[in-house]
Design a protein that fits this description.
Protein name: Hydantoinase/carbamoylase family amidase
GO molecular function: hydrolase activity, acting on carbon-nitrogen (but not peptide) bonds, in linear amidines; metal ion binding
Cofactor: Zn(2+)
Keywords: Hydrolase, Metal-binding, Zinc
Number of helices: 13
Order of helices and strands: HHEEEHEHHHHEHEEHEEEHEEHEHEH
Structural class: alpha/beta
Radius of gyration: 23 Å
Strand content: 15-25%
Distance between the termini: 23 Å
InterPro entries: Amidase_Cbmase, Bact_exopeptidase_dim_dom, Peptidase_M20
Bound molecules: (2S)-amino(hydroxy)ethanoic acid, manganese (II) ion
């Protein structure tokens, strides 16, 4: 006998789920729970415990994604939801976790009400979505979508030179198996990821939720400027090959290009810069720095990268500084399918949730999972648009509204 279906998420329970997950952090400001670390696996274990208590069977796939399955009346392609549990360095409590906590709450709402769906439902905690540690974004969902080669797992390395494959093996995963066990599209009917907006459109407009139509692409490179280290006092200014001065010009060249009207919509950022030998009295010999170029237009994104790299090469040539570059990630913008988005906006209409259609500047697991099964995204507001910082905040009531919409959307997708 099914009891009346609760149509609203339990905001307090949802909040304590989020807080319990956010407490799993390496310490220091904000949340630090990096890709393929013991701490990330601990977060997946906690997710698995919660989902077993909510009546799901739980397994971890070869890429380290944890998948909780709830049977329906019939076998068949599942309706899925989920997000990631890793964070950036000193990040916020909501990026990724909000979508996983919402998935847990939906499973609890269904379990509590004894709801029997037609199709099976699956709730996913993705591994290693953030590029903070290895540069590569969406590792777990890329592997699930069959978009990562085994060589990439050896090639991407963290600050200590540990490769993705070595980090996976260190937490008990098999990189060989991970690179050859993609999810089967036939096992899925649709997927909805709830995530914080990481921009300020919802917060500025006061609208409760966003429904995403397009997710930006992202090209990420690691550049190394090789100059000539030498004594800061004994070396005349003329004829120096100062790697940091060259990198500094490169940072400004990237910014200037992204501000150029020809590249309106592109975003270019140097987020990390390492100076060697890093001594006050030595001219910097080598600078290693990142370049992240995002755009909703794949062609403009690649033209922006090409033009920035052309400018950086010219700067280095003029300064007698060598330049090398290696790719870290390269994804194109993804348009999410109308029909799944229509089910989400239809559910919003049914339950009286105000929404607006938004583009995502951030990349997401949904981008990869959309290659497996048609996907939608629900955004909840980020206060002042802040994210990837300890000040990241989403109002508990707004998170509950987004979760209620996720619940209603999944039931609509099940009933199709
Ligand atoms: O970097 C991003 O866009 C996402 O937060 N991983
Ligand atoms: Mn995220
Ligand atoms: Mn993020
Ligand atoms: Mn994401």
């Amino acid at each position: 006998m099914t009891r009346p279906v609760p149509v609203t998420a339990d905001a307090d329970r949802l909040w304590s789920t989020l807080e319990a997950m956010a407490a799993l952090s390496e310490g220091g400001p904000g949340v630090t729970r990096l890709a393929y670390t013991r701490l990330e696996r601990r977060a997946h274990e906690l997710f698995a415990e919660w989902m077993e208590d909510a009546g799901c069977a739980v397994r971890t796939d070869c890429a380290g994604n944890t998948i909780a399955s709830r049977p329906g009346r019939n076998e068949g392609p599942a309706v899925g939801t989920g997000s990631h549990l890793d964070s950036v360095y000193a990040g916020g409590r909501f990026d990724g976790i909000a979508g996983v906590a919402a998935a847990v709450e939906v499973a609890r709402m269904l379990h509590q009400a004894g709801v029997e769906t037609d199709l099976p439902l699956r709730f996913v905690a993705f591994a290693a979505e953030e590029g903070a540690r290895f540069g590569q974004a969406c590792c777990g969902s890329k592997l699930a979508a069959g978009l990562s080669s085994r060589a990439e797992l050896d090639d991407r390395r963290d600050r200590d030179g540990i490769s993705l494959a070595e980090a996976m093996a260190a937490v008990g995963l098999d990189p060989d198996a991970a690179a050859s066990a993609p999810w089967r599209p036939a096992d899925w009917s649709a997927f909805v990821e709830l995530h914080i907006e990481q921009g300020s459109v919802l917060d500025d407009s006061g609208v409760d939720v966003g429904v995403v139509d397009l997710i930006s692409g992202s090209t990420r490179l690691e550049l190394v400027a090789d100059g000539r280290a030498s004594h800061t006092g004994g070396t005349p200014m003329r004829g120096r090959a100062d790697a940091l001065a060259a990198a500094a010009e490169a940072v400004l060249a990237a910014e200037r290009l992204a501000l150029d009207a020809r590249y309106r919509g592109a975003r270019a950022t140097v987020g990390r810069l390492l100076v060697e030998p890093g001594s006050i009295t030595t001219i910097p010999g080598r600078v290693t720095f990142s370049l992240d170029v995002r755009d909703v237009d794949a062609d403009r994104q690649r033209r922006a990268v090409a033009e920035i790299m052309g400018r950086v090469r010219a700067i280095c040539l003029r300064r007698g500084v060598g330049l090398s570059a290696r790719p870290l990630a390269d994804t194109s913008a993804v348009v999410l399918p109308d029909w799944v988005r229509a089910e989400v906006t239809g559910a919003a209409g049914e339950i009286g949730v105000r929404y607006r259609v938004l583009t995502s500047g951030a990349s997401h697991d949904a981008q990869m999972i959309n290659r497996v099964t048609p996907t939608a995204m629900i955004f909840v507001p980020s206060r002042a648009g802040l994210s990837h910082v300890p000040e990241e905040w989403t109002d508990p009531a707004k998170l509950a509204v987004g979760t209620t919409l996720l619940f209603a959307s999944m039931l609509r997708l099940d009933a199709r």
